[in-house]
Amino acid sequence: MTDTRPGRLPASGHRPGRPGPFFARDRGHHPPALWPDYKTSVARSPRQPLLSFENTLSEITGPLFSLRDLGPQDNDLLSNFATEGQPIGERMLLHGQVLDQNARPVPGVLIEIWQANAAGRYRHVNDGYRAPLDPAFGGCGRTVTDSEGRYFFRSIKPGAYPWPNATDSWRPAHVHFSIFGSGFAQRLITQAYFEGDPLIDRCPIAGSIPDPAARNMLVARLDMENSVPFDMLAWRFDIVLRGRRSTCFENRPEGN
Amino acid sequence: MRIPPNAPPNTPPVLKETPSQTAGPYVHIGLRPSVAGFAGYTWEPDHQIANPADKSRRIRISGTVFDGTGAPVKDALIEAWQADANGHYPHPEDGRPVMPGFRGFGRAAADLESGEWHFDTIRPGPVPGPGGTLQAPHVSLWIVARGINIGLHTRLYFPEDAALHATDPLLAIIPDPRRRETLIATREKDGEGVTYRFDIHIQGEYETVFLDI
Question: Which residues contact B166 (CB under 8 A, 6 or more apart)?
């Protein structure tokens, strides 16, 4: 139970009987900040070591969202931009489940996505790729996971596109994902790729994840079990957020 | 460090966390869609962290993110999370009441021309720290942009709280005073309201302290 008596401070979250701090982030499983093959990372990566600090209330808490914050079409990229017409491209159901590292479903998670259209063009002032914009496609969506941690979006499969890095670098088709957990320390942005895309192994951004098994976690799987016949293919992308330690280590008694 | 005598042994994680990827240059489409020209959402997080109607204690936090060449990161997106003026978080694991209309969360996109960003908020109160300590008032910040492979966590502290900084458990473990200074905003402007400046340097002589939390 949370102590709500006036003048009483809650513990920093490390008390027996409640979840402990988050598992330490396994930095070797993530891309290093400096990955020279991805040239922009050279000037945009810290050189000093990160300062490790045990979780406090500031990291264990974080913003919470609910479906009430969202509109009914926010997770439908097929219809949430244009008032008439439909986007061009391969229709898809993009769905999955959010778990924590203890393999428990995480309900109430805000997921925001953004993507290029079927031709590989973003609706953004800084995207100068010659491929056309789609008048019926905006490219963003959001939803909140249900009681079992599940989510889904309707969209079109994005196209690959060239980008300035090496002389002829192409991004594999991908959807950007932003995910909140219940604590600010869980904050995560990533990208979902599509099973079978030969550009994944040529991409320096996907390749910034050193461990192939870790990189493989970002590949959405074709999911015929959930395809909608004569309508759309389904792709499954499960997400794992940092989990909490089950017990509590204390440096010293809380004194309350 | 000690384990409470009645605690069961800790269970190791069974799954690996999903790896991070850069937010890329078009992050606004997804996270600040109104900035990107998308008008389809009825509400989206923005630079207002506290209740805009609470004018008496308003402060502004503004800054620029600089890369290792000293150039502003014009595509940066900054998120902020903070307690209210009493040091209470709007979250069940805090559980204490928060001020009306206080969300505690803000999201600011850098100006695409200048790289400058800002939040409008109120000053947070001190919050509990480990082992019964008190943490000086601070705002937790998280920075993403093209070229940033995993979001950068840092904290902003306020210059008026020098006495509390001396006992803050996070500032206490930064031995170099010049490094510690990178986490303390400067008070820039009074008048209508107070503005604090907090520039973030990703690398170089003034590299900001970033956190592994």
Answer: none
Chain B closest-CA separation from residue A146 CA (Å): 19
Decide if A176 and B83 are in contact by the 8 Å CB cutoff.
no
Contact B149 A208 (CB under 8 A): yes
User: DSSP per residue over A41-106, as a string?
Assistant: GTTTS--SPPEE----HHHH------GGGS-TTTTBTTTSS-SSS---S-EEEEEEEEEETTS-B-
Helix (H) or strand (E) holding A191: strand A188-194
At B6 the pLDDT is 58
CA–CA min distance B191, chain A (Å): 30
Report domain extents, chain B. 24-201
Query: Of the CATH numbers 2.40.420.20, 2.60.40.420, 3.20.20.10, 2.60.130.10, which one belongs to the domain with range A62-240?
Result: 2.60.130.10
Least confident of A13-22, A71-80, B131-140, B154-163: A13-22
- Domain boundaries of chain A, sorted by first residue: 62-240
pLDDT the model gives residue A5: 37
Q: Measuring CA to CA, how many Å separate B142 from each of A20, A256, B153, B200?
A: 22, 32, 5, 11
Strand runs (DSSP E) across chain B, as ranges? 58-66, 77-82, 105-109, 116-122, 127-128, 134-135, 138-144, 152-157, 186-189, 194-197, 200-201, 211-212
Contact across the interface for B94 and A61, Cβ inside 8 Å: yes
We find that the CATH architecture of domain B24-201 is Sandwich (2.60)
Of B26, B105, B112, the CB nearest to A122: B26
Catalytic residue set of A: 122, 161, 171, 174, 176
Residue type, A38: Y
